């Protein structure tokens, strides 16, 4: 794994892009990544108390902590080089940004057919049926300049931004 | 079950205006203090096991948790203090000898705090550390009686020396008493700072041997993990005779904690108790110690300094004189405030003398006998802050990992389902989950890679 900070750097191996990696050996399974992810994608943004006290319908977390004590790790969309979900999407809602390489789902176009869920090899897309049927997944916090809330708030630095070569 | 007189020591206050029910506290408490009630859809608290470690308070994303002392009072009695009463209750409840961790926590005087530091102003102009480098480099090891200089160079070879960038070292803490991640954190910090960490008698983990030039390997009464490679792997060898927190007492790592990794590193069968006897069974006199010092020197080709660590006790000066004459290069003195993974409470709180006095007594005695140059003195035992390090006179001092927690883990009832696995066995950082909390990378970049 190449841990670095820059992005979009061309190299003989291809383009390097930011990815979130979880260091399983130091993930303590506190699930704060999920909590902060929910808040970051709610209408109250980073206000945890308002998000959880006032919103009955909250966004689903884009990161899922897989756990079998003592092993635990946060897993979210890998933003694959050739995403199966994008290929399988029947409405064109699931898209991969050609510049950042981030795979996002357009809630307006998504019809909730769940084909992407079937196709995803990592099982990181969830059904969100709270307000209409849409597929919910990690969007790399693109609205927050690509600074993922989970990475920023991981108390043990288990989640880190690294570079992947595409 | 009879009535338990031990009431909770702390009260956990949860501000429900702020609590968002995320259950981070439930997942992170090692003592199962917090629990989630599905019917009420609320997180509740049973503080009887709370040790005030602050983990829930720190991790709570809305800072909804506060922990305070339980105001429940005992009837005032200058003789029967609440502490004494609680200890008796606890002893009655557990039926065993009270064990504890860390160093002496009684408010005994700290003599370092009664010393002030002199400074130079005129005869030696003061130094601006930002523009003029101040070197703190220290060499530990025996020095010759006379320095013979030929053509500007030393004429004879010095005995092996241990080079420290600053006169501070980590005290010995074994793998087993502390976790792998904690060991790695010490090793990385030591190599980043140019100082030494000490394996204790837990052996030298194979993954950490790359930090060997910043490692002191210990040979203690249990001889765990000792083989020729082990002796060669470190920068110096330490023979542990005694420990400040429990002078004259050995150690016991319960078999439950001896995982496959610890078993490989300590070279003992997995699951077997690791017992360190109180004495070395081959050392019953200074002459025996001399034999061990020289067999270790022989094994490492006289290239590594050999240190002897003893606890500060009343006849420490005479012992150090003997140790110096037995051929040690370094003497480490551990005062009564020194830390431990586990020691009987009464021993920790009542045995030993302050390292301040021990250091003065030893230094005076060795000077009187004209052998002070033969050994370097290292003083350890409860150096909590920089000023105390400084006041130990650059003699080289040791600091331990500070666990902010309970020092109470042995008094805890055995809870098999405790999340952190081995918390009730003491040194809770060795539990598989708590181990992960000691992330060696935390703060490392900030400290060593920002400049």
Quick structural overview:
With 166 residues, chain A is an alpha+beta fold. Chain A has helices spanning 32-40, 48-54, 84-88, 115-119, 149-153; strands spanning 10-11, 14-22, 64-68, 71-75, 94-96, 103-105, 126-128, 134-136, 159-165. Chain A folds into two domains: 1-76 and 147-166, 2-Layer Sandwich (Alpha-Beta Plaits), CATH 3.30.70; 82-137, Alpha-Beta Plaits (2-Layer Sandwich), CATH 3.30.70.20.
Question: Describe it for me?
Answer:
The complex is a heterodimer of chains A (166) and B (451). Chain A has 166 residues and is of the alpha+beta class. Helices cover 19% and strands 24% of the residues of chain A. Chain A contains 5 helices and 9 strands. With 451 residues, chain B is α/β, with parallel strands linked by helices. Chain B has 2 domains: 66 residues, Alpha-Beta Plaits, CATH 3.30.70; 338 residues, Alpha-Beta Barrel (TIM Barrel). In chain B, the strands form 7 sheets. An 8-stranded parallel β-sheet of chain B has the order 19-17-16-13-12-11-10-20. In chain B, helix 8 crosses helix 10. About 6% of the residues of chain B have low confidence. At the A-B interface, helix 1 and helix 2 of A face helix 1 and helix 12 of B.
Largest sheet of chain B: 8 strands, parallel
Quickly give the CATH architecture of the largest domain in chain A.
2-Layer Sandwich
Separate helix tally of chain B: 13
Q: Beta fraction of the residues of chain A?
A: 15-25%
Query: Compute the gyration radius of chain A: what is it?
Result: 16 Å
Number of domains of chain B: 2
- For the terminal residues of chain A, how far apart are their CA atoms? 13 Å
Content of β-strand of chain B: 15-25%
**In order across it, which strands form the biggest sheet of chain B?**
19-17-16-13-12-11-10-20
Count every helix of chain A, treating DSSP H or I runs of 4 or more residues as helices.
Answer: 5
Low-confidence stretches of chain A: 1-8
Instruction: List segments of chain B where confidence is low: pLDDT < 50 over at least 5 consecutive residues.
Output: 394-400, 409-430
Please state the CA-atom Rg of chain B, rounded to the nearest Å.
Answer: 24 Å
Instruction: Write down the CATH topology of the largest domain in chain A.
Output: Alpha-Beta Plaits
- Distance between the terminal alpha carbons of chain B, to the nearest Å? 60 Å
The main pleated sheet of chain A reads as:
3 strands, antiparallel
- What is the number of independent domains of chain A? 2
Question: Could you report the average pLDDT of chain A, rounded to the nearest whole number?
Answer: 86
